[in-house]
What we know:
Bound molecules: (3R)-3-hydroxy-3-methyl-5-(phosphonooxy)pentanoic acid
Oligomer: single chain
Radius of gyration: 20 Å
Helix content: 25-40%
Strand content: 15-25%
Shape: globular
Distance between the termini: 33 Å
CATH topology of the largest domain: Ribosomal Protein S5, domain 2
Amino acid sequence: xxxxxxxxxxxxxxxxxxxxxxxxxxxxxxxxxxxxxxxxxxxxxxxxxxxxxxxxxxxxxxxxxxxxxxxxxxxxxxxxxxxxxxxxxxxxxxxxxxxxxxxxxxxxxxxxxxxxxxxxxxxxxxxxxxxxxxxxxxxxxxxxxxxxxxxxxxxxxxxxxxxxxxxxxxxxxxxxxxxxxxxxxxxxxxxxxxxxxxxxxxxxxxxxxxxxxxxxxxxxxxxxxxxxxxxxxxxxxxxxxxxxxxxxxxxxxxxxxxxxxxxxxxxxxxxxxxxxxxxxxxxxxxxxxxxxxxxxxxxxxxxxxxxxxxxxxxxxxxxxxxxxxxxxxxxxxxxxxxxxxxxxxxxxxxxxxxxxxxx
Length: 359
Ligand code: PMV
């Protein structure tokens, strides 16, 4: 793992003031990452669809100051100063300062907002951390104009990963692999890469409706959940299975076999939650309505010979995945039936997107 490549190796320009704004998406994993070692090295490779509508928009204003030992920043979320988000961002800056030493010479004012409710169970850390990483990389590009787009994206993913593992998959799209895997050319444990093979037309513009079953704060954070994989009796088998599933889904995505896709994606979601159920201490993030929705999806699939399926991340919400050619019928099913199982009947229509955008 050559991480020295991410340390700037040339003298940088001097810039007094700069401001950059990025919109970066959330993502939904098809093969899940659950379990890691230090520093944010995944125990298995994972792959996700990048989303389009669920995103964070972040502006960072940089103004030159004397260099200090620690990053100096202010943080505003949806216009209000957010003390409670600061420790996570401070430890992110600490982790990245070896790779971005220039941040110690600036005062940073961060303004951030999400297109979706915070703590709705939608991975706000993925879009949030990737947005900050892109703003840092815009500053680095201004300080070092020779930086290529590929090098910039790679380092942005590398930095984002140090904030939140899944954030490494929120820089590019439509499909990103994170974690070294023998069947994915160029894959790495320290940054995400775009799925490098041609994807079958069946998966073009794939739809993801996020059903908000429970918008409350999670009882067990993903940090705690990842840590419980260290002493987990089934961990090694799970990591092996996930890597095998990544090899399988790579073929499925190229060949377009929908039945195999559905089978693998749903099994991954339930296995993730099975790991939670069998952790010590055990915990359950699904709610009764999560299960109601899963059963409804299965009934609908059988009755209509549909390619609808579901996945879950670390929460109670259900991501309903379906091909674009079933959009009209399935959206109607969601509105008339599945919405009844959502908190305040809330759901978000999303689809696969292309990654970070500079605004
Ligand atoms: O990036 P983290 O540490 O919040 O972990 C995310 C883990 C899952 O969302 C459950 C799975 C994944 O691969 O995104």
